[in-house]
Amino acid sequence: MSKPILEVNHLKKYFDVKGGVFGRKVGEVKAVDDVSFTVNEGEILGIVGESGCGKSTTGKALLRLIEPTDGEVKFEDQDITSISSEQMRLLRKDMQIIFQDPYASLNPRHTVEKIIGEPLLVHGMNSKEERKARVKELLEVVGLRPYHASRYPHQFSGGQRQRIGIARALANNPKLIICDEPVSALDVSVQSQILNLMEDLRNQFNLTYIFIAHDLSVVKHISDRVGVMYLGKMVELADKDEIYENPKHPYTQALLSAVPVADPDEERDRIILEGDVPSPSNPPSGCPFHTRCPLVMDVCKEDKPQFKEDGDQHFVACHLYN
Amino acid sequence: MSDVILELKDLHTHFFTDGGEVPAVDGVSFKLHKGEVVGIVGESGCGKSVTSLSIMQLVPNPPGKIVRGEINFKDDNLVNFREKRMKQIRGNEIAMIFQEPMTSLNPVYTIGNQLVEAIRMHRKLSKNEARAKAIEMLQLVGIPRSDEVIDEYPHQLSGGMRQRVMIAMAMSCDPEVLIADEPTTALDVTIQAQILDLMRKLNQEQDTAILLITHDLGVVAEMCDRVVVMYSGQVVEEGTVREILKDPKHPYTKGLIRSLPKIHEKEQKLYSIPGTVAKPTMDATGCRFAPRCEFAFDRCFKENPELYQLANERSSRCFLYDNEERGVEEHVQTDSRG
Q: How many folded domains does chain B comprise?
């Protein structure tokens, strides 16, 4: 059993809602509400959920790109929520992020060399020659050519830009990479290239990924374990085969049954949920899913279900299993 | 066949840009039968959206222009229609819904206002009658408290609700053809399932023919009867949904299907098509897919293959299906099996 590289305990991120003439706080949006999980060294943890469920906020809060409101994030046994921002900056050498939109996350006025070289400079590689050599090496690692270093982002296609984003994340040999929807802006044929690249890199450099996505087939393909989020909470977390073959939470069941499969012979009992995701500024009492749950009971409306283990390493927050 | 409601014949829509002429739609032909759901599949830039805009005569001109070809709707060729005639067709007989439900509704008018406008444009109804019809349509598409929602503004509704409003608007004049351009791409999976369910119901109950434009082969499998696959402005393959997904003939379709991560299967490594999607250009010679194709041979780089008819409404734009090259096809089939 490999040891945990990241431990997240009761992570919370509330955004204040300001209103009125004086801009006073009139409410809060519980974007991430009491999320706990661990990530083991060398594994890929997938986090899935629909828009607004807090999966991206979780990813950013782990790196303190958004300051968490409460909770604890332990990276290699060090609580990073309490350290100074300078210490955090140094630590980010080991923790990197890849963003969703390769069009928005690369500075259009910088050459590729500058984009990839910047994290090297920030973390103390002062010699220009060394940086240049490292950039060339990184470009080859992600399947681009060394001469691409002098080009600008607009000269690349979406898939190539995402490769640049990956090269930038890899620059300082990180241990953990948070991938926030890295393939959702890409076409199917390019998506598979990037997924294969990410898997190769993981094996080559012994990386750990937190892979955030809304596409369940992609997450299933790449992850070792999968966590499902709904309205700021983690509702289920288990080994990927376990969660896809034996989903326990009614939301996970509905989510899996709603994925269109490219097979006309596939017969499934589709669970079509009623209504929309409630607003996280005014979440329902009790279980956040009770307004749409087909198996709702009286207790769900009042009591919040605990996130508990039910079976081997299979965590679920649902009164059906408590 | 007599029940063909919409037929495209050798449609060419080109864009005249500073960088030169771009054949975004390069000789597209297909048929849509009454009450049928046909999917147009392809990756970004393949011309699927421009095809749908061409049918509605909504291609921005300049820079875009239908250079030649026919769009036969019932007995008329829409390409010859003036704007005034086209307005009677649009929304009334052919309706369209778009990908982004926020940008296709006017934010400063209420839902009711926009629905009533669409209805009164084509039907001689009083304001009150049109309003009653609008409420009825909102109920039909499953919007709760529709008599209140009608007086709300688009920003008060969620993405799924807005797309329902768009469908209500599109269906309000009982069109015979509904063109849906990526109707669920901006929506979450559980909401997507609701919208697809609704569209299927409308297709079955009202017998509306649907032209569904999408990049998602999963959506195609759920919804469509027949599929047209496009690549770089051209149709590369056509067939029933089962033929396309179970027995694809064109190497591009094969590659596309193989590169999808499958939710119910375990696999070590994903297949991927090398390279990136080719942009349509005027001076392209040879098969558009040849540079990325693992089966490409000399001829593929020299001339563009025609769309070989394999059976009725089953075709593939690939030299492997040319009779002269028959031997090669068998070779390839054994190859891909092993």
A: 2
Domain of residue B281 covers 251-337
Neighboring chain B residues of A157 at a CB cutoff of 8 Å: 276-277
In a domain, A320, yes or no: no
Q: Which of residues 40-69 of B touch A (CB under 8 A)?
A: 43-44
Cβ-Cβ contacts under 8 Å, B215 against chain A: 187-188
CB A260 within 8 A of CB A245: no
Instruction: For residue B23, say if its preceding peptide bond is cis, omega within 30 degrees of 0.
Output: no
pLDDT in tens, A15-52: 888 877 788 888 888 889 889 999 999 999 999 988 88
Contact flag B221-A157 (C-beta cutoff 8 Å): no
Residue B318 lies in a domain: yes
Percent of chain A scoring above 70 in pLDDT: 99
Total number of domains in chain A = 2
Residues A166 and A222 in one domain: no
CB contact under 8 A, A157 and B276: yes
pLDDT at residue B328, as a whole number: 54
Mean pLDDT, chain A, whole residue set: 89
Which residues in chain B are closer than 8 Å to A50, comparing Cβ atoms?
188-191
Given this model, what pLDDT does residue B337 score?
Answer: 42
Q: Among A173, A194, A224, where does a domain finish?
A: A173
Distance CA A140, CA A150 (A): 14
> Cβ separation of A190 and B276 shorter than 8 Å?
yes
* Ranges of residues in chain B whose predicted pLDDT is under 70: 1-2, 266-267, 324-338
A278 found inside a domain: no
Residues 6 or more apart in contact with residue B74 via CB below 8 angstroms: B5
pLDDT tens-digit readout, A264-313: 777 777 788 887 778 777 888 889 999 989 888 999 988 889 888 888 88
In a domain, B208, yes or no: no
Q: How far apart are CA A186 and CA A206, in angstroms?
A: 25
Chain A residues with CB under 8 Å of B270 CB are: 192, 195-196, 221
Report pLDDT digits (tens) over B209-240. Answer: 999 999 888 899 989 999 999 998 899 999 99
For chain A, say whether B155 makes contact (Cβ under 8 Å). Answer: no
Same domain, A57 and A203: yes
Residues A63 and A158 in one domain: no
Q: Does B219 touch chain A (CB under 8 A)?
A: yes
Whether B263 sits inside 8 A of A259 (CB atoms) is yes
Note the pLDDT tens digit of each residue in A156-210.
Answer: 888 889 999 999 999 999 999 999 988 888 888 888 889 999 999 999 999 999 9
Do A15 and A79 have their domain in common?
yes
Which residues in chain B are closer than 8 Å to A280, comparing Cβ atoms? none
The answer to whether position A185 is within a domain reads yes
Find the domain containing A23 and state its range. Answer: 4-94+176-272
B189–A216 CB contact, under 8 Å:
yes
Identify whether residues A132 and A245 lie together within a single domain.
Answer: no
In total, the C-beta contacts within 8 angstroms joining chain A to chain B are 122
Work out the minimum CA distance from B29 to partner chain A, whole angstroms. 24
Question: In this prediction, does ipTM exceed 0.90?
Answer: no
Q: Are residues A191 and A156 in the same domain?
A: no
Judgement on whether residues A35 and A156 belong to the same structural domain of the protein: no
Domain end position, chosen among B172, B203, B223 = B172
B158 neighbourhood in chain A, CB within 8 Å? 276-277
